[in-house]
Specification:
By secondary structure, the chain is mainly α. The protein is built from 25 helices and 5 strands. It folds into 2 domains: 229 residues, no CATH class; 267 residues, no CATH class.
Length: 571
Amino acid sequence: MSETRPWSAIDALAEAYLDQSVALSPLLATEIGSTVGTDRLDDFSPAGLAAKAELAQATLLRLDRLTEAGVEDPVDQVTVWALRDRLGANLELDRAGEPYRELNVLSSPQHQIEEVFALMPQDSLDDWQVIADRLGQVPTALAGHVETLRLGAGRGLTPARHQVELAARDARRQSQTGSVFAQLVDQAAQAPWATSPAGGQLLGGLRSAAGTAEQAYADLAEFLERELIGPAVDQDGVGAERYALWSRYFLGATVDLRETYAWGLEELDRIVREQADLVGQLYGPGVSLEEAIDRLDGDPKWRVEGVEALREWLQSTADQAVAALDGVHFDIPEPARRLEGRISPTHSGGIYYTGPSDDFSRPGRMWWSVPEGVDSFTTWRERTTVYHEGVPGHHLQIAQAVFLRHQLNRWRRFSGSSGHAEGWALYAERFMDEQGFLPHPADRLGMLDGQRLRAARVVLDIGVHLGLPFPDGSGVSWDRHNAWAFLRANSNMGQPSLRFELNRYLGWPGQAPSYKIGQRLWQSLRDTALASGSPLRQFHRDALDLGGLGLDVLARALGRPARPADLGQAD
């Protein structure tokens, strides 16, 4: 896509929806690099939720009127499919009351608020004034969240008790010494302007606002511990009906969950065998996977010491990938060649990517959240993750969509689904292995370590939430306890990080399997394109130029509707 296409009424509708969404969600505005409402936070109250649902419904009604006579432009046609898919999935969740019990360890409003400050500019006195103003809005935003949870509980829409306990623990952490808000004040105190009279006044305002934010988190913890814990449900699994809604939302596709569960078990078994072959290559016969990992972890060749050394290694690895792939297997736009490796201000142990702003003034960034006290890292595990988060993974996919302003409206450039984005990132890991970027068996073992976890959580996530029999022949059902044993048997991640992973799956149904299911479709689409004679570089360009989509829309837009074998769909 190189020529500018004429803008249409459908483009205008999609952009209007994005503009109105940004107005309703200042957090979304910051995420996409907009300056709208950067001193405010979202309205997480029932009124705020209703406004977002009303906007989605009104947009779909206008879309129906616009398309009554048909759609001729192929880009418009994909936009129509994508709007109906994404907005429809949001409305399904809203009608089911899911936002009224939104509470987990990663994506709840309390976590969205914590993380947004890391995305805000911090270069000038004016930037920090905006941060101080937004900090002052934390009590109102969390009060709205409490109002929604209280209303949900009154309607019998409650989260699992375990998630309430975890959310309360997290809220307590942000109300105490060392909170992300206190860290912001510490960062501001090191700025050049901090010693000026105006700077001193602003620092005082920041400290006051940080204190009110910490108190708001203490109040949230109090509500969770004293009020919501009572009506919360004991069962971790959400059941087949709720799970199907979340699965469709994260995938942009409706899959046969039991077939997908069986496929996950087969994929897990295949990866285990592949790992055993690599261990044999590394250390010969008779060495177990656990022994091989211990040897690799103890080998100085595969270690970097210190958080800053980790950041430098991440950056150099990412830069090398960009240089090697551009013009060979991918066409990387010039602004997208800039990618930053960052250490997150949080300490959850998670790894994530944030996309560039619309004008690329803020580059795409890979974030490593390092648990407190950890200062030694193994590169044999991390190389494949750089490819997952950077190039050719999330950064290439998302930054390329942002770049295509001459072809895609702004909503298309910032929309998408977890199955599309995370499936591509797993596809990127395997692709880099296929192309020789994991030349040492240790690096390949690191890639398989991550792929094994992704396959295991397809099985675990569906098994727990649907209450399926645990796959040991005992006849007992999946629960949190045997899920922990299963997870430990299929991952070599440290226990704190692994515990966080399990809690994430229990509280965010359907999200974790979207990675592996998405990879399944991406690889199928690639194989079909190559079999038809399409060059690999052309397939990548065609697919990525579509922007983020649901998986069904992706397959449809590439001219290949998804088959049951691709997504586990029932005929």
